[in-house]
Design brief:
The chain is mainly α. Helices cover about 50% and strands about 0% of the residues.
Length: about 110
């Protein structure tokens, strides 16, 4: 369907203003002409990866948050009572950072190289 600029402006004034404006522009720095090659080049590092209780605890800032995670996963029976008790003991004795450094936002994307 062809449409001239003036008709576009009358029918869709906001869209026409966005198309003519310089804001909200995203540069395209590269493209792939072969989509299969693009799919193969993507990182598969975390394909099928399912975070465990330690991954969730490492996102916490405080012991109270970690305790909530342990309690929640125990209640859902994703971890058993013995393992939950072991995690609570480590949390109480050594603190939340004893499980590893804090995983910040976009941790998995950065690790995968995005």
């Amino acid at each position: 369907m062809e449409i001239n600029k003036e008709k576009l402006r009358r029918m869709f004034p906001h869209l026409a203003r966005e198309l003519d404006g310089d804001e909200n522009q995203v540069p395209i720095t590269s493209f792939r002409s072969n989509s299969e090659a693009g799919e193969r080049s993507m990182s598969k590092r975390f394909d099928g990866y399912n975070p465990d209780v330690i991954d969730f605890i490492r996102r916490c800032d405080a012991a109270e948050q970690a305790e909530e995670i342990i309690e929640y996963l125990e209640r859902r029976r994703e971890i058993n009572h013995e393992y939950a008790a072991q995690l609570r003991k480590q949390l109480r004795d050594k603190g939340v950072r004893s499980f590893g450094s804090k995983k910040e936002d976009d941790y998995y994307l950065r690790q995968a190289g995005y």
